[in-house]
Structures are given as C-alpha cells and as structure tokens.
Specification:
about 190 residues, two-stranded antiparallel ribbon, mainly alpha, 4 strands, Hypothetical protein af1432
C-alpha cells in the first residue's frame, strides 16, 4: 500500500488499508466522504480570501471519518468496541500514527460542530477532556460540509440548513450557535 503518491497523501489507499473494499463499512465510508469532500472543495473555492489549502481539504475531508470502523455502529457496517462518538479521536490517533497530525486534528474536531472540554466533562462523554472544536479555516470548512450529509440511507442527499439546525437543537444552544457562525462564514447557497 502506498499512502503517498507523487509526494501527496493518497486517502483512498489509507481507506483501503482499514476498510475491506466492497464491505458495507467501506461503502459507508466512501459514500459519505465523497459528497463531504465535494462540498468542502466547493465552499473553499468560494472563500479564496481565506486562502484555504485545497489539496489538504481534499485529503482531510476524504479521511475525516476514518475512525468509524473501530466503533460499534452495525447499521454502518462497523463492529468495533467503541461508542460512535469516539470515531473522531480514534481517527485522530490512527492518522497521528501515520504521521499526518494536521489531518488527525480534522478527525478529532469535526464531530458535531466540535465538542468543548466543558461539554465532555459535563456530559461525561468517553473522550479526553480537551477542546475539540475546529480552529483552522480547513477544519471549519470540513466540519461545516460534513453536517450536510448523513451516513445512513440517502448518503447523497444534501440536508437543508433548517434540517441541520433541527438536528443540532437536540444537543444544545451552543451547537446551533456554532453552526450558524459557520453558515455566516461559509454559506455558498
């Protein structure tokens, strides 16, 4: 397996290393990553004044959910030992182990609209207590684009902003407020 091709990270090779091609988990990963990547790149092209790194966005968006195979999410074809909420930190550890720390931070920081240390502590989440909210323009773009697509049935259907807000309301006002900030910053509709 070559994870670097012509000096660039090859996200499909990394996915192929951890997901059996043709498996449900592999289909889930690719069918979600592709539209998220496409939307991420579309958004990035609309904000050239922010100087987003398009090559990095392609790579990191394709890999943002690399950790799902280690979670217990049978409907996605994943039969791991960890709760689904851990997929970000699992992907972060995996990509750090491959020496891709910037890509690893995208994995960690894209879950929901990011998770704060207070939320981890107050909700007793099975995560390290630290701030896991997106910081860089690339992390924010990928986190934002990710909210528009689910991994279940209809992975290609783009959710409306209203649908996303309705889903985020279940988790609290901070999540909705953070998402609306991303809408203001990146909306290309």
């Amino acid at each position: 397996m070559v994870i670097l091709a012509a000096g660039r990270l090859d996200p499909l090779a990394i996915i192929g290393k951890y997901y059996q091609p043709g498996s449900q988990a592999h289909r889930t990963m690719i069918q979600h990553a592709e539209p998220v990547t496409g939307k991420s790149l579309d958004i990035a092209r609309e904000v050239p004044h922010l100087s987003p790194d398009l090559d990095f966005i392609y790579e990191a968006a394709m890999l943002h959910d690399i950790g799902i195979f280690m979670t217990n999410a049978p409907s996605l074809g994943c039969h791991g030992d960890y709760p689904y909420i851990c997929h970000g930190i699992l992907g972060q550890k995996l990509l750090e182990g491959l020496n891709f720390p910037k890509h690893a931070r995208v994995c960690e920081r894209h879950v929901g609209v990011g998770i704060t240390a207070d939320e981890i502590r107050n909700q007793n989440l099975p995560l390290p207590i630290r701030d896991m909210t997106p910081k860089t323009v690339e992390e924010k773009i990928i986190c934002y684009a990710d909210k528009f697509f689910s991994k279940g049935s209809e992975p290609d259907r783009e959710k409306s902003i209203e649908e996303i807000i309705s889903g985020l309301e279940l988790y609290g006002k901070r999540q909705v407020s953070s998402f609306l900030s991303l809408v203001d910053e990146f909306s290309v509709n």
